[in-house]
Amino acid sequence: MKVQEIEIEWLKHSSFEIKFKGKNIFIDPFKIDVSDKADVILLTHDHFDHCSIQDIEKIAKDGTMILCTPDCQSKITRIQKKIELILMEPGKEVTFESIRVKAIPAYNQNKQFHPKSEGWVGYVVQLGSTIVYHAGDTDLIKEMSDLVGYGKKGNFFIALLPIGGTYTMNEEEAVKAAQMIHPDLVVPMHYGSNEIKDNSAKFLALCKEKGIDAKII
After folding, report:
1. CA distances from 132 to 7, 67, 76 (A)
2. Per DSSP, what are the bridge partners of residue 24?
3. Longest dimension (CA), the chain
4. Are 69 and 43 in contact (CB under 8 A)?
5. Which residue from 41, 45, 145, 195 has the fewest beta carbons nearer than 10 Å?
6. Alpha-carbon dihedral of residues 100, 1, 55, 34, nearest 10 degrees?
7. pLDDT at residue 205 above 80?
8. pLDDT higher than 80, residue 153
9. What is the CATH number of domain 2-209?
């Protein structure tokens, strides 16, 4: 799907590829089947379905920049390419060329799978006048309120939100998150794979009820 200056494709689960000004940006590649090589890879945390060394090796090349949380580091060092590794934590911001990446907290409230103490993240990626928020594996959390306003001042704000419910927000909570942060477009993720139910139709219906523009891409 082309939006503003970017092309964005959902590669299933929480995996996305974004193309911007000749750069290929991958987020949490997992069980992907692509021929593109990555200029940038963003990893939200070290769980096997978000930091998959087999998938990273498919797309890494000499010069690939990998931004990840510290717990991913031991896996990344096994890659037989000359990559640039940048460790991320909540609140850290990195700018390179015309791309700006900020790490946003991602954690569970009442589940044990993603404790806040781990320092795992989602990412806000600014690509020209398009801003993409990949929430990572998270529940509806108070820190999301810091994202209010990203869609203003001429920016187009896309939110990639998990809806699976077992390890993350469910569809109702994801709608509440969208109501909180006011994106121009919401794309659901983290469902229909790894034994997580496909509740995307319900999510889209709930978004329509609330006047939220949501789409599966």
Report:
1. 11, 16, 24
2. 19
3. 49
4. yes
5. 195
6. -130
7. yes
8. no
9. 3.60.15.10
